[in-house]
Amino acid sequence: MRLGKFAGFAACTTVMLLASPIAEGQTADARDYDLPAQDLGAALRQVTSLSGRPVIVATDLVAGLQAPALKGRFSSDEAVDQLLRGTGLHAVPVGETLVVRRVSDGGSADAGGVSDILVTGTRIRGKAPVGSPLVVIDRKAIEQGGFATTQQIAQSIPQNFGGGLNEATAVGGTVSQNTGNNGTRGSSINLRGLGPTSTLVLLNGERPPLGGFAGAFADISMIPASAIERIEIVPDGTSAIYGSDAVAGVVNIVPRLDFTGIEASGRIGTADGDSQEYQASLLLGTRWSSGHAMIAYEYYDRDRLSAADRPFATDDLRPFGGLDHRVAYANPGTIYAGGTSFAIPAGQNGIGLTAAKLTPGTVNLADSWTGADMLPQQRRHSLFAAISQDLGDTLRLHANGLMTIRTFDEADRPNTNVRRTVPVTNAFYVDPIGTHQPVGVQYSFQRDLGNESRRGIASAYGGTAGLEAKVGAWSANAAVTYGRDYERYTGYNLVNTARLALALADPNPATAYNLFGDGRSTNPATIAAIRGWYDSTNVNSVWSATLRADGPLFALPAGDVRLAVGGEYREERYVDEGGTNYTSTLTPQFRVPIALSAPRHVRAGYAELLVPVFGGDATVPGFHRLDLSAAVRTERYSDFGTTTNPKLGVAWEPFAGLTIRGSYGTSFRAPTFSDLRQDPANQLIFSYTIPDPQAPSGQSNVIVLRGNDPNLKPERATTWTLGADLKPGFLPGAHASLTWFNVDYRDRIASPSTQLFSFLVNRNVYAGITEPNPSAARVAELYASPFFSNFLNIPVTAAFAAVVDARLQNLSVVKQSGLDMDLGYGFALAGGRADIGAAGTYIFHIRQALTPTAPVSDVVGVLGNPVDFRARAHLSWSRGGFDAALFTNYVDGYTNKLNATPQHVDAWTTFDLQLSYRFQAARGAFKGLRVSLGANNLFDRDPPYAAYFIGPSTAGYDPENASAIGRVVSLQVTRAW
Q: Where are the alpha helices (DSSP H) in 446-554?
């Protein structure tokens, strides 16, 4: 059974869940403390370790503060209160977590736990989402993990699948759809592997502008890691709270809004000398009696990773159990005449070449990875700023903004190889069969022009400004958000086919193009004349206005019934701003700007209710606490209509220390601008001949419809979770969490067009989109369409086996179920603090079908999809200013079905090590200094071999489930004042 792979992981959790000797009414985490006077941050970490109660605190809040000695028996709340006494700080409970804030940030210390903190997954302040799991990666975890970029943080999340729109998958393309929409090599988050557009990404609770063609994804590479306070992840459908895209969950990136002081940091890393990265950041923050302001700048630069430095970057997959997929475009090239190939010999310049020197029946091959990059060179400048100003006792002005400029440069594999026709007038013409007719030549221009390459720029800026008012116990917030993402990229070292045709027809050897030599055999001026290029520009923008309020309705014995309500208006706009094309004409051709569709207007209203049924003074045996929540959101889209989505949540504590929770709701994803595109350039009808086992000849004619269905509607999903969280009183510092999740995803927007040759081979799979044996009138109607093309000159009177609707449409269904696990134990060790734990995701199945009535296949653990089990474990120890952390990353083995014979891809285990020292008692230059030394993929494990071949992309590894970067050793120095 596949379940055996995590039996040990789950068994440990089961033992902890069954053992619960905590009497009713007893404080679950009360214990004896004997801590010396020490640095406040270290003391809070020790309380977390000993009690198991998570405490979130910004490093700068406690910098330079000393904690008194703590001796006696305390609950975790009481212990933290003792440590914070007299510091101007207090701890606010948010669900199971204590969040340390300044008294002025969250009201007075006796405010009953009601604060300004808004946790992802709910609109009710000061509360955690009821029923849904919540994963928090705080500032300490970011520093301890040695992450340099936000995308590196995302890659460490077990629920995140590396497939989709990311910089590593953009080069050459992958099995995942839409990788070509990532023109400027950004990075996305793909929770559950349901697609980047099914994960909602927020920046401080608001939607940033989307990146890529037509807003294909949220580009997290634009967010500087040094400015992040924490990342909150709710891997559960949350459209009832946030609207579209939150099918797989929501990721909220929370900046360091409350930073005070000065922090400067520099980092250098190297992938064993093959690729270097450099990072520098500066944060400034100040506070006055009625407000606060901060500004952060980050610079990041990473060299390209060349394919020449990785042996698995190759088209020849024979060493990896595959076939030789080297391309038949080489230099020297291959002549085709009379249906025969003739290899051009090496070691000559094409002058005086005769047919006798050619090798008939042979093809010269080349590896398309030659000179190409696996990862592009990236350079980024980011600036984030925030300000908060009290306008009296009950009104506060707040604003924050982000501006990022990122450039990239990469050498690509060839994308424009095509057989060239050489007329008899060419000065270097060779006639291999004596017919004196034009010949075809398959030739690589890489040695003439250099690698086909792409460089470009992506810039994003935007921000939020608003007013927050306190009206009694209620809080109201009105805000406006604007964001704009601009992308421009240029493809260069391409062949201008019009100019090449002239040069191939040229009889003058001084100016004609020579395709018959080995190496650069043509006049440099002629080569320069056929050099083509193109550029493209697109802009995504969003602005929104929100009005939100939340507060108590009335009191119950267990606490206040709380309500959150709000209304939102959002406008999304995408414009293809055109560009220049110089690849097929004698002069550059300029494209005019195109709006794929009209601006999208979204109006939404929501309400969320939290009801504490038991708890506080209202407890009964078996119900230490019981919370219920209900939310509903209605949205009206200007381009496809209205959708309403509810969500229910429950959290039950039968006794202190054990919480059983569950959630149920519906979610949706709105079609993107490219999904709704209806311009003529995106429509196509064509006739074609494809394989057909039922036909006597083995082939039949079909008519295929391509483009976008004008009646697209949202993708819809029903999601539910059931989980348990345990913090046993008999083992302080331990915690265990299990979440069983289920996603029923339907009406998925998909196109089967890439499966053209399977339409009649697997008729049962495509029956839902196939019109068999069309009438003559139906065929004539389609032939008469202005969008019809007859590539094979099939007459209208021919017999047709089917009309296949291969348009982008609401087609497929996906049903996914699995288990998230998180275990941890913190304890005192050798005068310091130790912590051990692991988090992982096990997927039971991903059952998908092309249509609701088509056969179902389980694709979990199949290349191009998430593996069934992925986990990250850690072991850390800290004492004083010293901190050491070892991480283990595990990706389970899976099956590669891209080849005729399925192959097993081995599991991949890597280790990360981080060592750091913070000078705590030092004075002078060393005061506030932190030095970190890290090694990711410590033992330099290569990705497991996989014969990866999908036509445009070939490699000896799977870029969606593994990284090509190898071991990265880094040194970081941070100084705080």
A: 446-449, 497-504, 524-529
